[in-house]
Task: structure prediction
Amino acid sequence: MVDIATRVYNHKWKIDPIVRSLIDTDFYKMLMCQSVFRNKPDTQVTFSLINRAKNIRLADMIDEGELREQLDHVRSLSLSRGESTWLRGNTFYGKRQMFRPDFMEWFENLRLPPYHLEKIDGQYELTFEGSWPEVMLWEIPALSILMELRSRAVTGHMDKFELQILYARAMTKLWEKIELLKPHDGLRIADFGTRRRHSYLWQDWCVQAMGEGLGDKFVGTSNCHIAMKNDLEAVGTNAHELPMIYSALAQDDAALARAPYDVLSDWHEEHDGNLRIILPDTYGTKGFLAGAPDWLAGWTGIRIDSGDPATGAENAINWWKSRGEDPTQKLVIFSDGLDTDKIIELHSQFAGRVRTSFGWGTLLTNDFRGLTENNALAPFSIVCKAVEANGRPTVKLSDNPNKAMGPADEVARYKRVFGVGEQVAQDVVV
Result:
């Protein structure tokens, strides 16, 4: 077992670059990248870092030279022979050769494109521009780097014994969560915590602890590198990025209304089984389900990533019933701001009504709340999103208006096209 405190104390060792592999990323990124490579490889996009927690002034905490060093290191990475073999030959979701030879040949020769970095009012403005398949792979490394450099900025002033106590307390805190989850029969839970983790080493420790503590209840990790390293299932499907960019490319309101379904039509051609998971909330779940084609009701399940999770699950159950489907055979994946109390509550509430699974993110891999003075290591909400496609702005509405993004006039247009009415705002914790 790695002595994390000692490694953190010596965190400038070259053995600990923040991102150590191109597959130190989420599995859904790989799946989406292959889909984009196949369907829209020439689309030009811009991704931008968005810190929702304006009170955390990252540019005042993180040295620009250190940030550039970590970003430049990512640009030097390429796929290793072992990583290529794992992607080409491993079984994912019961399917061999999930990644096609033409995609793998492209990925094996990839170096991530340049970045643009500025300091503006205590924050870093970090943007990436270029072809969609290349630029999209910056999202997870960029977030991981910013989050871990913030962690290093806080822990860099601590002595070795202080760090030993910090990580002992964090380990105890996670193990207590695992013990709360362990008694619940039928629980299925995965690590979704790469994007806003405390650090790579800490995420790896959390994944190993989950595996030992929960056994078969722990079904895998979204992180490809950690999955490969620990011989675990790599899990994940798709994200808001696809409908956001497809929608931005739409030439009129009619094409805009079709865009979220066009995404899933392309996905339907490539994947089956548990990879056929609907993410309905990009422009409001209610409108999405009302306008969904019948063939989507035959998909395996739905992922709920914003709004009230219980309401989202009830809406999904009612929709399946209205389309003649048996909800007890369907899967609902909860993945927004989860912690143990909410996981247990939702698992109990929907037992026997629908199959449930949980993608546990930031509060698994970055819950240092209450462990440092002034809560200096508490997680916060930071994202890296596509903001433009072929010169047109992207929009996200979500079931939580506090997660909405895009120019005001385009947000109003999207609300009109997708019939989004009144929404209930909820705090964005992570």
